Each structure stands twice: as structure tokens, then as C-alpha cells.
Amino acid sequence: QVQLVESGGGLVQPGGSLRLSCAAPRLPLDYNRIGWFRQAPGKEREGITCINIRDGSTYYTDSVKGRFTISRDNARNTVYLQMNSLKPEDTAVYYCAADRFLTVQAMCAMANPYYSIDYWGKGTLVTVSS
To answer: For residue 79, what are the β-bridge partners?
Structure first.
């Protein structure tokens, strides 16, 4: 059974940093597009950054560009999200997801991504507050 497991969420003050992890030990090899999505209360789930773990190509939405960094450790089957300069508006449940056909840009820009992307983790809560 394919599982994506997020970890690393928590409470952080504005301006602080967190690193999230997405472990996917049994992900089929052709599912090489991994994305980070977030959903704030009362808002739609949105893609924020996606990576092709085969060639390293990445995509960032404007809201996180320059503050967040996605990376992968293929040996550990893990994708990371380093989040710096966190703002209260970054408060959300953060999910990772896996796909095999979409480009990284298309994956991140997907409307209603939950219904279009094959595999999802259960999410980890990030709260940015003083």
C-alpha cells in the first residue's frame, strides 16, 4: 500500500523556520512528481511547490518563492520543504502528494488537486503565530 507521511509541523513565531518531511518508502518508481500543498481553514487546497525527483526540476508559486525550498533525498525516499521567514498567512495543514504524469508546474497549479492527483498524505499542521 502506497503511503505518503508528512512530519515536521508545529507552532512557530512569525519570521521563524520549519522543515517538513514527506516520506514515501513504497511509492512506485514512476510516481516521480512530488508536490507540497496546503489548505488553510475555509480555503481551497493550493499547490505551493512541486519537484520532479528524477531530474530535479522545481516549481514555486509566487506566495512562497524566495522563502520556501523543496528538495529531495532519493536514497531515503523523502522530499523536504524548508520554510523560512514564515508569516501568519502560511498557517495551514500541509500535504504532500505524488503524481506520475503532470509537469511540476501543472501539478502545483491544479484546481481541485485532491481529485486529480493520485496519492496524498494525511497532512501536518503548521501554525504561525506569536
So the answer is: 22, 72
Summarize pLDDT for 51-104 with one digit per residue, the tens. 999 999 999 999 999 999 999 998 999 999 999 999 999 999 999 999 999 999
Please report, to the nearest 10 degrees, the dihedral formed by the alpha carbons of residues 120, 124, 129, 130 taken in order: -160
- Helices within 16-119 (DSSP H only): 104-109
H/E element, 106: helix 104-109
Secondary-structure percent of the chain, ordered helix, strand, coil, rounded to 5: 10, 45, 45
Count of helix runs (H) and strand runs (E) in the chain:
1, 11
Cell 516520506: give the residue. 23
The identity of residue 121, as a single letter, is: G
In this structure, are residues 12 and 127 in contact, taking their beta carbons and an 8 Å threshold?
yes
